[in-house]
Amino acid sequence: MADPARLRDSTQIILPPGTPDGLHRDLESEFSVTVTDEGATARIIGSPFVIKNVSQYLARHGIALP
Asked: In angstroms, rounded to a whole number, what is the distance separating the alpha carbons of residues 20 and 11?
């Protein structure tokens, strides 16, 4: 049986505090993801394939993920 934590890690990214607000809109328009604001952080939710592409996009834009 699949580990729920592993599945969750492959379908979401938690953006660190201080990530530019405009980036949220860019992600939703560029990729098939949902971005939810959670106070100082934001959660990006999508399919594992899309999350991998979003991670690469964020790295190209200098956003370090934990």
From this structure: 21
